[in-house]
Amino acid sequence: MPHSEMTTGRLEAFSDGVIAIIITIMVLELRAPAQPTFPALVKVAPVFISYALSFLVAAIMWVNHHHLVHAVRSVTARLLWSNLYLLFWMSLIPFVTDYAGKNYREPMAVALYGLDLFMCSTGYYLLRLELIRQSGHDSALREHHERINRKGAFAAALYLLSVPLAYASVYASFFIFVLVPAMYFLPEKLVGE
Amino acid sequence: MPHSEMTTGRLEAFSDGVIAIIITIMVLELRAPAQPTFPALVKVAPVFISYALSFLVAAIMWVNHHHLVHAVRSVTARLLWSNLYLLFWMSLIPFVTDYAGKNYREPMAVALYGLDLFMCSTGYYLLRLELIRQSGHDSALREHHERINRKGAFAAALYLLSVPLAYASVYASFFIFVLVPAMYFLPEKLVGE
Amino acid sequence: MPHSEMTTGRLEAFSDGVIAIIITIMVLELRAPAQPTFPALVKVAPVFISYALSFLVAAIMWVNHHHLVHAVRSVTARLLWSNLYLLFWMSLIPFVTDYAGKNYREPMAVALYGLDLFMCSTGYYLLRLELIRQSGHDSALREHHERINRKGAFAAALYLLSVPLAYASVYASFFIFVLVPAMYFLPEKLVGE
Amino acid sequence: MPHSEMTTGRLEAFSDGVIAIIITIMVLELRAPAQPTFPALVKVAPVFISYALSFLVAAIMWVNHHHLVHAVRSVTARLLWSNLYLLFWMSLIPFVTDYAGKNYREPMAVALYGLDLFMCSTGYYLLRLELIRQSGHDSALREHHERINRKGAFAAALYLLSVPLAYASVYASFFIFVLVPAMYFLPEKLVGE
After folding, report:
1. Which ipTM score applies to this complex?
2. Chain A interface with B: residues with Cβ < 8 Å
3. Is B5 close to A70, i.e. CB distance below 8 A?
């Protein structure tokens, strides 16, 4: 299969389509409560909060994906399949979001949420490894990718940590789920970049 | 995160994808009545009407979003996240539409619908604030954006009003929900522009 | 609202997105039978056939929509809203398909299917009227659009006929639903063009 | 209907939209288990595995579709409708995936999965036949397409074989479902190319 012909435009358009759908279908899990009472609405709150959090996580992933694709020099088979690997784990976000939202006090549901976000992080890691490979002799670019990859590896480590942590306290895991997106909004200097 | 590289084309394509899905998945809430009788169909009518109204609202938002993006000079982080903030509230339209359609006589369901449209309006407001900021010394352009923003602020105020109003009379809120889209179709002179 | 700035590219991309979703979400109504037996599968057959028919109808609409947009000279407000009007009725195809598929012997369900396809036809009619208006002094182009519009009006008349006909015989209506797509595949000479 | 005007760009964008949705809505069938226990999660495993397999199959189809469209010289009516025929069978993948995932020990459910993938293969076959036709006197290109088509025909034959085989042993069919995607990842020399 000669993949070299593919342009980043197509890769980007397809990934965007998949991410746009992932972000939007999550809302289908938000079932309108049977009764229009305030207590019934409050019961939906954890599902809503998990939806909002996953929307934020997926939005950050979309922004990062965009920057990443911009740096691509050639669409190799390795890049293409790393991207599809990432999209696979991202496509599970609506499932784990729904599961964790409905069982937010259950370690397993929370651990599964963290596990899927960790798997997404490994997808980004693979994509960036390929970018570093493509940087060739351009040491400035190489260093730029390596620096971002260290930040990504830190986020991945936190997500991995959230899996066993959920069995100690689900709230500790939730703290991580809020911390990682926050890392992307804090001034760059504070997070060592 | 250097956002400056993003083109408006990508921002537009992604937003379009999300809005197209929002508009289309709402129809999934229109459940075919179990029995093929006229009374059974009539029961679906409020859900259908709320679908039609939300389709119209989302269509107007899409048209406005398009004009707005056309005026963008550079895709700053502020613009990007204002846009994602808007898409988040828009993504809840299918949920509040379904909820209000099935409980159209319940103040809380109607108030929630108004609240979500108000939140969407704040998203547009933030986007236009950023556009005004980008206008720089071009006072004609600045004035153009400020004029549109006044109209938007008026629509936002009406949506906000619909929230408490629903507890007095849901029909008063529905009047607002029909009035705001109508404002966009009346001859410009009548709405003070 | 100055619509003149919109390009046909955006109109096309958004319409394509909506049509792609319409075509695809219909399959969600195809519920896997609870038991893996042949009789259980046969019960799904009418829903499958109605899905296949609607896929074909929507595919033809997509092809026609594409040709239509290609002839657009400027994206006027009238064109934009005619298009959104068409997409609204198209967005109901999954609903009427599901309803008719599950109640294919019930006149009302079949009539509703015909009614929605008729409303879609009126959307095309409005779009083509606007194209004829845009043709200006180019009489060859004008005639081309008028000829296609006659064919479209014929299809619309057939769909309108299928509504009362369903109360006489649902099979007569189904004949129309198969006949109209066939018209688009028969050699052009046979259908008077 | 003059199809000649259509560009491959539009064909590609529409197909991409449909494939992106197919890939993503499959995850909606992954229902979160009612109880957050490990045994409850294990019950979801076959549905998850069938999802992962179908994701892989659809991803390979997307990559192949992309290469195929790149070789298109003119968008003829034959090409357009071969493509829509392919998308129709692809759109059933979420349905057969769900059915086979929930009834993975039932020959009929597994046979249906194989049948749909076989029908998809016939879609690719038709598309490549049209490409061979378009190759004209370019014998090198013609041979390239014919070689790929032989590989495709081999995959199609395997999928067709999986249909009766499911009645002997569903595991034999599953072996085929894993074998065919693997064929696309093995070094080209091993699969005779």
Report:
1. 0.86
2. 12-13, 16-17, 19-21, 23-25, 27-28, 30, 32-33, 36-38, 41, 52, 55, 59, 62-64, 66-67, 70, 184, 188
3. yes
